[in-house]
Amino acid sequence: MRTEMAIRVLAGTMVLISVVLGHFVSHWWLLLAVFVGINLIQSAFTGFCPAENILSRIGVGNSKASCCCNRPD
Questions:
Q1: Residue 17 domain boundaries
Q2: Are 18 and 32 in contact (CB under 8 A)?
Q3: CA–CA dist 1, 31 (Å, integer)
Q4: From the CA atom positions of the chain, what is the Rg in Å?
Q5: Residue 40 to residues 23, 25, 48, 63, 68: CA-CA distances in angstroms?
């Protein structure tokens, strides 16, 4: 899995978790979705993404070829 795809999955998962917790537990959990959104916007302008740094350190997106996206013709 490429790092960009992993970041999208991570961000989407965090937003969905935030919405579910905001509905069932406390509306304050919606601040997590706000944080994710602000982080995505700032990373688009600055090029700095903390999630990318963390994912690359644990080895996500460092493979030469993906299992399903880079098939030879």
A1: 3-57
A2: yes
A3: 28
A4: 15
A5: 23, 25, 10, 24, 26
Residue-wise pLDDT for 37-68, tens only, equals 999 999 999 999 999 999 989 988 776 544 45
- Which amino acid belongs to residue 65? A
Supply 63's token pair. 């493979």
Q: Output the pTM of the full model.
A: 0.76
Nearest to 14, CA basis, from 1, 31, 32, 2: 32
In a domain, 7, yes or no: yes
Residue 65 covered by a domain: no
**Predicted confidence band at 14 (pLDDT cuts at 50, 70, 90)?**
very high
Is 31:14 a contact under the CB 8 Å cutoff?
no
Query: Angle at Cα 58 formed by Cα 53 and Cα 64, nearest 5°?
Result: 90
Reduced to 3 states (helix: H, G, I; strand: E, B; else coil), residue 28 is: helix
